[in-house]
Write a structure and sequence with these properties.
- There is one protein chain.
- 34% of the residues lie in helices and 28% in strands.
- Strands 1-4-2-3 form a 4-stranded antiparallel beta sheet, with helices on one face.
- The chain is elongated.
- The chain has a single domain (2-126), classed as Fusion Protein Consisting Of Minor Coat Protein, Glycine Rich Linker, Tola, And A His Tag, Chain: A, Domain 2, CATH 3.30.1150.
- The relative contact order is 0.26.
- With 127 residues, the chain is α+β, with helices and mostly antiparallel strands.
- It has helices spanning 2-16, 38-51, 89-102, and strands at 24-31, 64-72, 77-84, 116-126.
- The longest helix has 15 residues, at 2-16.
């Protein structure tokens, strides 16, 4: 089921690609080094990708929005802010909205010793 959902999100994004003036939307997620559990990282990525709604107004090809977020031990979103703007307010707002809408996440993995984890979500219109 999860593979099917991930495939559907990828297909939806790829289907819209010809309409994007030679750009392709991409989402990359970077976790602080203290959280190495890839299964948790994939779940967070999946929730945000599912919540993403591409706006009508796009940034220039090659531009990106970076949403810097903190996920608390219980999975709640402690904070989220735009740390790099793309030049398109609609794109930036949609990126921040996707991260907020995906919350709450699952609790941080058992054995993770810190109270929270910092995550950077990169929403780009790649060439």
């Amino acid at each position: 089921m999860k593979r099917l959902l991930a495939a559907a999100v990828i297909l939806a994004i790829e289907a819209a690609a010809p309409l994007l003036a030679d750009g392709k939307p991409s989402l990359n997620v970077y976790f602080q080094k203290t959280l190495a559990e890839t299964a948790y990282q994939k779940k967070v990525f999946g929730k945000v990708a599912k919540a993403w709604r591409m706006p009508a107004a796009l940034p220039a090809v090659g531009k990106k929005t970076v949403v810097q977020a903190v996920i608390a031990k219980d999975g709640k979103l402690a904070s989220a802010m735009i740390s790099m703007a793309s030049g398109s307010k609609a794109w930036d707002d949609a990126a921040l909205s996707a991260v907020r809408a995906a919350s709450p996440f699952e609790a941080l993995p058992e054995g993770f010793e810190y109270r929270s984890v910092e995550v950077h979500f990169h929403f780009a219109l790649a060439p």
